[in-house]
Amino acid sequence: MPQNIASLDVDALYPSIRRDLLHLAVEDALRSSSNHTDTEISAILELITICLENSTVQYRGSWFGSLDGVPTGGTNSGNLANIYVKWILENRILTDPTVASYNMAKNGRKRFLDDIFQEWYGTDAEFEKYKESINKVGIELGFTVKGDCGKTIEFLDVQVSLEPSGYKTRLYIKPTDAKRYLNRKSYHSKHTFRATPFSQFRRAVLISSDSVDRVDAINYMAEKFINSGYKPHELLVAKMKALSLDRRAILNLDEIVNNVPSSTDNDKPATLNFVINQNPRVRHTLTTIIKDRRSDMGGLLGDARVVISEGSHGSAAQLLFAGGSFSETVEERSASQKCWAGGCGACGVVDTGSVLARGIPTVSGRPVALDGALGCGSAGVVYLFVCKHCCGEREAPGFCFGRAVDGLHERVDGHRAHFGTGNFEYGKSALALHVFEGHPDHFSGGLENFHLCMVGSTRPRDLERAGDCFVWNARADALALNGGRPVEWVAACRGTCVCVEGECMGVVGG
To answer: What is the model's pTM?
Structure first.
């Protein structure tokens, strides 16, 4: 039984990696752990060099290339860093006589990338000298470490304690963790919201060796999920499902204790996955290349299975890249929506600018301040529909306030669906009924008969109170969408005050 346990963490690994040593590490790994020919190894090394030398970042319109290190978050960065750390430790650090003399560190060493866990058969003072010897050797290599030693340490997301009966583990959450989970109001499929809490609760079950610690960890995370909008009853279902898992079977604890090798399917061919945005032309081109070069790829990849995975929407990084000067348009979008969503009726209707160009709308003499920063994807908003055909008419007012808890585009699509004459459902929408009875010649135009603008946004629980500050009528009522009260347009003096019938009413929103 060791006296203590220790953890080490490499300082700023990715930017500190020396590319000349990385080249040696990768070459050594390929020659010792693969059957690649010299030509293939040279090609792989050249491709890695090209990737690293062309790693760029854009800032304020300028592009910058990295001079050294490996880009954090790069596609191949994790694999390269893993190979590098293993090679540095085994060939430069641990083989150095001053470091190797600390034989109390030879047993029980585990590593994940740049995080190292090990049993320590010495004192705390000896561990500090051990770290100093590593850093003395590694400083010239750009490889230094920090770490702790004791009866309890944190390693990744696990808190490990050394007790007389053996190791005890529990879930460790860093103090810097914001503890913010996927918001329940975000636009994801239902199974995602079921899987997210369960996956986190499952992690607590697998990590925590004590049943009480598992429940405590799950209850703590459940509170944070509630803060992100999740319902207690759906969290309870995920909790009970996680606690019912057979932890020993999942972790193969019986096989580990009895030193029985776990059954793995090592003969299963590897999978090479190409991840692309949903694009028929790119998919067809990539599929054609793979089929035409099947023999060449077979010689390079062996029996690897090639898969093309398409995403419905691009990631934030891809969208930012597409809008940058480094990219070029390869295919015109087929949808008319600015967000490329397809089928949504909000584009062409959200038009706060046109409304403000007329002046500031007032309802019964009360100015309505509009928020041009909100858009069709905003949630928790109070919105205002204004009829284009009767703006300013007192006899046939055409405006309607509303509230949208979820995304505004969903509410817009709901109104749009009632503009069909075939199902005679226009009476279910105040907007459709207004156009049908007040402007029948324009009924086929649907929502294009209106300007849509946003008044403001708030938290869902405060939305009803916010909506009540404005005129609200949830029932379609012929021509008078808001009880007969008209929309008036007034000019804004200097853009900061409201005038009604020539009289200044003061600062907007004041």
So the answer is: 0.53
